[in-house]
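Incident log, structure service

09:12 report received: a user says their structure output differs between two submissions of the same chain.
09:20 pulled the input from the user's history:
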Amino acid sequence: MPTKVLLGLLCLLSSLAWGEGRSIRQLSELGSRSQLLCASALLYFNPQEREPDPRGLTAVFYHLQSLDTSIVQLGQPAELMQPLRVMRRVFAELDGLPRSQRQRYPQLVRELLLQQRQLRKAAAELQAPLSPAEVAARLPLNAQSNALASLLLDYQLRHYPLGDQQQTPMANAALQALDLRITQGFEALLESYPAHAEALRKIRSNYQFVRAELLHSTNQSHGGAEFYLGRAVLDLDELAMTIEAESGSMTAVSLNH
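09:34 re-ran on a clean worker, output below:
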């Protein structure tokens, strides 16, 4: 086979593999973004809050738009579009309610949480034949992002009058295990990506700044935890995308030479 043809085939295969990896990463991002959306909704649409911070509403809208964009880029599979449509509808209904009807918030927020779980389940199924453990091993930055998003969502659940026994916060043992996994995850990431150590340390410091509040708070939730941990989640997702792009560029350069 001529060298030029062989190089062309190798470039094509590399491009296909990179595209597959990108899709798997985007599916993983749906998990972190959908959990951030629900965490922000729990903070803003809390019936006990008479004057919530409007930045919470902006965050919900931003995360919903991010989900929409990612699902469009993934080709709008029906399994993802169905829960997304319901989430859009529920958000529009929540946003349209006057504060005088805030007693209706928990019912609608329950539906939002349900659809978030459906979306994450569908995303995991679309990553097949890779198991969740294999995806986490392949995408450690996104796995860490999802772990932080899970912790933030649990924190907001602990402070929300949901009244639903099917959607309860983690038991203390599970919460401590998640914290340990996050701590070990940062150590592993620093070892695996020394070129990005500065960015990773900054992300870890955001987590550590609110860690005590996230693990031990029993009082009203605070927007500070939402801000710092939400920023850490988004930064990890962005770093994962950056490293993936760098890897794709390096592969293309090596094949061309």
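09:41 both user submissions now match this output. Likely a transient worker issue. Closing.
09:42 reviewer note: The chain has one domain: 3-256. The radius of gyration is 20 Å.
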